[in-house]
Amino acid sequence: MKSSVHDLKNLAIPKIEDPRGNLAVIENNVVPFEIKRVYYLFDVPSGSTRGGHAHKTLSQFIVALSGSFDVIVKDGLDQKRFSLNNPSKGLLITPGIWRELENFSSGSVCLVIASEVYDEDDYIRDFEDFTNYNRVERS
Fold first, then answer.
1. Which of 136, 137, 62, 52 is nearest to 98 (CA)?
2. What is the domain extent for residue 93?
3. Residue 16: how many CB atoms within 10 A of its CB?
4. Structural domains counted in the chain
5. What is the rounded CA–CA span in Å between residue 131 and residue 79?
6. Which one of 15, 37, 50, 53 is the catalytic residue?
7. d(Cα 54, Cα 112) in Å, to the nearest integer?
8. Is 53 part of the annotated catalytic residue set?
9. Cβ pair 65, 121 in contact under 8 A
10. Shortest CA distance to 13 belongs to which of 1, 27, 32?
């Protein structure tokens, strides 16, 4: 069965506090998958939306390293909004979930840790195709 937006959750990132500044560490004990790709979004213009797709098999862990932004997730039946603004917490998104990122604050940096390398065939980029895909997967 495919994931539901109600299954998604924020995960804490271990933080080492120090008067000189904090250190957060993301290893495979934080995310439930082997890390195969890491990228980040920055200098996102005001009013822009990123994402707008789902993945068939890839999982992602999304962290607001700096600033804030919202992640809207949809499973074809329901949707939820997560506001990310803390670099010691991240949102785990499982396969079969549509995601859109919006409301980027000035200077925000969005880190994405992925379970797979880039594969265009894993993307579902049309929302109608996504709802049809999830309908077949749920039946």
1. 52
2. 5-138
3. 9
4. 1
5. 13
6. 53
7. 14
8. yes
9. no
10. 27
Phi then psi for residue 74, to 5 deg, are -135, 145
Q: What is the pLDDT along the chain (139 residues), one digit of tens a residue?
A: 568 999 898 999 999 999 999 999 998 899 999 999 999 999 999 899 999 999 999 999 999 999 999 999 999 999 999 999 999 999 999 999 999 999 999 999 999 999 999 999 999 999 999 999 887 665 5
Closest CA to 94 of 61, 139, 69: 61
Length of the chain equals: 139
Q: How far apart are CA 66 and CA 42, in angstroms?
A: 9
Give per-residue burial for 103-139: e unless 16+ CB within 10 Å, then b.
Answer: bbeeebbbbbbbbbeeeeebebeeeeebbebbeeeee
Asked if residue 2 lies in contact with residue 77, where contact means CB atoms within 8 angstroms, the answer is no
Q: List beta partners, residue 40.
A: 111
What is this structure's pTM? 0.92
Task: Give me the residues paired with residue 66 across strands.
Answer: 109
Q: Are 7 and 94 in contact (CB under 8 A)?
A: yes
Q: What is the CATH number of the domain that holds 89?
A: 2.60.120.10
